[in-house]
Amino acid sequence: MFTTLRNAWKIADLRKKLLFTLLIVVLYRIGNVIPVPFVNTKTMSVMFDQQLSGTIFGMFNMMSGNAFSQATIFALSIQPYINASIIIQLLTIAIPALERLSKEGGEEGKKIIGRITRYTTIGLGLLMGFAYYVMLKNYNTDFISQTGSTLLTDTGFLQAVVIILTFTAGSAIVMWLGEQITEHGIGNGISMILFANIVARVPGTIISPLWEMCFPSVEGTSSTWYWAICLLVSLLAIIAFIVFVSQAERRIPVQYAKRVVGRKVYGGQSSHLPIKVNMSGVMPIIFAQSLASLPATICAFTGTTSGWWYDNVFSSTSVIYTIFYLLLIVGFSYFYATIQYNPVEVANNLKNNGGFIPGFRPGRPTSDFIRKVIHKITLFGALYLGIIAVMPVVLSAITGNTTFSFGGTSIIIVVSVALETVTAIEAQMMMRNYSGFLQK
Questions:
Q1: Phi and psi of 153, rounded to 5°?
Q2: Which in 7, 94, 218, 408 has the greatest CB count within 10 A?
Q3: What's the pLDDT band for 123 if we cut at 50, 70, 90?
Q4: Which DSSP state fits 264?
Q5: Phi and psi (nearest 5°) for 267?
Q6: CA dihedral sign of residues 333, 334, 335, 339
Q7: In this structure, are residues 408 and 364 in contact, taking their beta carbons and an 8 Å threshold?
Q8: What's the confidence (pLDDT) of residue 170?
Q9: DSSP character for 270?
């Protein structure tokens, strides 16, 4: 990875893209510390640590890089955009007009769908901003009675409008920053912002606990450096496993028939059709999290973070939530595999170019075989994502430590985004190398 970045830095065009991406990330991180007006951010952080860190808001805080717990202008982060993308992609399948627009509309159709997604993002940002304000108002009274401090410096109508619109504008700006990275940077802007948010939490969530285990600050506490080493080795093993599965692929052999054109013979080569084990990347986990956490989010925004339904169904440590979360990951994995890979189209392309898979006739038998292979591979990839994402939740339920709840998800997101970014940079480097070769 470091070799790829070093080689990319030597190319002027890619160096500009890398610097532009870094500039956007820095601007985003600056916005992550700008507080929303009329909110006492210090008492908000204290209240979050005392009451909300173990709730579903812990996931929001992780995906926003601690901005959610500090009530900054980017507190909603990319959540509205992710939810809008889920809604539009599902509606694309359900509504024939949107399906035709996505498949037959070409570049103009993609622009229209992108515009619809942006409008939906702003609408969801407005709704989530209102919910955030309602949460602050509900917890404000309880916090005053407990500590004497206020979360909101003023609760008037005008102040409420300013807070809600600030949150909404922040979500729109985050969406715009992500699009700028996608268009003018190294690509995959929303994932890059999510990557920056999670990496920003590494010192507090990984380095500090390991340091405290090795060098305890409380007198009389014994050092547990051996547990710190075990945790570090386990973390490195999980990262290596994620990298291995992310790079793994199933190669279907393809043979091209010989063709005689004039006095020349074309074809006759042997090749392969690569199908990645985890072709959907990290998106199934992100989408599954958004849907699985929706009931708990509504409860938390309204101030209801206790009771049988919340503890046994909606909570991220409950058995029902874990099973539903796992099923959603599997479902979204198949959903993305269906969108990204069309066996009929692949079989037709092979047939038109004189290629065939040994042992299968061109046409429908080939497409059926490819579909069968994709289903098997997708099942393995979905179970891999599900196990990595659910295992910390299981550990959290067993140990009672809620800090584990989103650990596996964070690792998968960071590693997957890093690998996708390196792959995109390598593709752009290869394109420029071919261009230079042709010019020579």
A1: -75, -20
A2: 408
A3: very high
A4: E
A5: 85, -160
A6: positive
A7: no
A8: 92
A9: E
Tokens of 11: 């190319």
pLDDT of residue 397: 60
Number of Cβ within a 10 Å radius of residue 241: 14
Mean pLDDT value across the chain: 78
Res 301: pLDDT:
66
The two structure tokens encoding residue 158: 């005008």
pLDDT band at 400 (very low <50, low <70, confident <90, very high): low
Task: State how beta strands 270-276 and 355-356 pair.
Answer: unpaired
Tokens representing residue 194 in the block: 């999510």
CB atoms within 10 A of CB 286: 22
Handedness of CA 208, 211, 216, 217 (dihedral sign): negative
- Strand pairing partners for 256? 355
What is d(CA 41, CA 159) in angstroms, rounded to the nearest whole number?
15
Residues 105/111/117/118 CA torsion (nearest 10 deg): -160
- Tokens for 282? 């990290």
Phi, psi (5° rounding) for residue 157? -65, -45
Burial class (CB in 10 A: 0-12, 13-18, 19+), 167: buried
More confident residue, 294 or 167: 167
* DSSP three-state, residue 282: coil
DSSP for residue 310: I
- Angle formed by the axes of helices 106-147 and 79-94, nearest 10°: 140
Token pair of 413 as six digits: 């997101």
Q: Are strands 249-256 and 355-356 parallel, antiparallel or unpaired?
A: antiparallel
Q: What is the dihedral of CA 291, 292, 296, 302, to 10 degrees?
A: 10
Q: Which two three-digit tokens encode residue 424?
A: 């995109």
Tokens at residue 133, please? 């304000």
How does pLDDT run across 59-114, given as a tens digit for each residue? 777 778 788 888 889 988 888 888 888 888 878 877 888 878 877 777 788 888 88
Phi/psi at 148 (5° precision): 85, -5
Give 437's pLDDT tier (boundaries 50, 70, 90). very low
pLDDT per residue over 374-395, tens digit each? Answer: 888 888 888 888 888 777 766 6
| Cα–Cα dist 334/340, whole Å | 10
pLDDT at 432: 64
